[in-house]
Amino acid sequence: MLSPARRSSAALWLLALTLVSGYAAAQDSVPPQTRAVRSPGNADWAKDATEARSRAASQNKLVYFEFESSGCGNCRRMQALLYPAFDFESLLIRLVPVKLQFESPEGKLIAERYSIEDAPAVLITTPEGRLVFRMQGFKDAADFYSHVHKDLDTYRQFAKRIDAQDIASLSAEEAYATGRELYSRLDPQAALPRLKRATVAPHPQPGLRESALEGLAAVELELGEAAQARKSIDQLIAMTKNLDQRERAELFRAQIPLSQNNPAEALALYKKFEKDHPGSKYRDKVKSFIERLQPTTSNR
Fold it and tell me: What is the value of pTM for the model shown?
């Protein structure tokens, strides 16, 4: 049997629990549209992209970039339609949001990487920078939510697929498909081992190994591995029977010296291409490259 003092403490504890439960229930019963709004989406917005990425990484979230610009009427219109809505608050639960001025150095750098040309724009990435969602301009809230939720669902399914992969045992088709999508999502580091696997996996579909080599060379060059890119593209040139693919590979091969600050070698390769493929559909492009490179090499 409880002593009077213990009975009193227990009663107070039960009363406190009742009050807390009643308060929580009352809060849950408050319509979302009448809740106090502390910030856009009631979220804790990061002060800059670095903080947003750091917090997203530690909290296992994605990064929500919102580009705005001074004097941007459509930016204000977008914010007016999104910010008060409970839908926006729900969206930001698994995201770390940050605002970027489109004209700022940070804004310009990120906009250039993700091919964003104007504000308003919304970008969602992983903390490492893999593209999840990109929207330029703003139509209306319904259109925004339709696209953002669809793209988020698509990405989450793709991420589960990637996380479950054993790269060394992937088929050529699976390795190429996921490597190509990762590259399109601006994640060349994750694309690299999958495209490498696609070039050596057994029993590929006809032409797949050549396509994988073409993609692999592009990834290697982007990652600064010029020697490896040269090796991959030379292998493609030697094995492909597709004439258009061969021409694309030869043009890519000519770009590699430019990444190594060797315009003279690039010019020689473009001139060789012009001589070897006089009827190429890339002829005009090659001529423009030659015209731009000739003054560069003559002044060296």
Answer: 0.83
